[in-house]
Amino acid sequence: MIFICSEMVNKMEFKAKDLIRDLDFEKKLKTICSFNNAKCEVRQGRILDIKGTNISFMEAHRIDIEVNGKNLLLLYYDKDNLFLYDRSMQISIKQFCRLLEEIRSC
């Protein structure tokens, strides 16, 4: 358990740096979405550094998907690390295609 003094939080300075995007991979995901009549929106991932410390947080690229009134969230760091909702549910491109097809057909 970590306790942080509220005065410390107010004094913390963050430096944000964009993660490198894989535009080809994003295009592939967008194409899969369009074939399944799904809307998708990609948000840039970032690396947050706390200045004066050696602590960093990595925020994955987010892909918000809406299909048949249902919302999905994909996270990715690179083409080999694609997750559904959070980092505990890794998913492949084939599984993602099947999932969208199942949701679309409902």
How would you explain this protein's 3D organization?
Helix content is 30%, strand content 37%. The mean pLDDT is 88. With 106 residues, the chain is an alpha+beta fold. The strands form 2 sheets. It has a 4-stranded antiparallel β-sheet, with helices on one face. It has a 3-stranded antiparallel β-sheet with strand order 1-3-4, with no helix packed on it. The chain is built from 3 helices and 7 strands; from the N terminus they run H-E-H-E-E-E-E-E-E-H.
Question: Which terms summarize this structure?
Answer:
alpha+beta, 3-stranded antiparallel β-sheet, 7 strands, elongated
Proportion in helices: 25-40%
Structure class: alpha+beta
- The H-and-E topology, N to C, reads as HEHEEEEEEH
First-last Cα distance: 43 Å
Largest sheet: 4 strands, antiparallel
**What's the Cα radius of gyration?**
17 Å
How are the strands of the biggest sheet laid out side by side? 2-5-6-7
Shape from CA axes? Answer: elongated
The number of distinct structural domains comes to 1
* Unreliable stretches: none
How many helical elements?
3
**Record field, number of beta strands:** 7
Proportion of residues in β-strands: 35-45%
Average pLDDT figure:
88
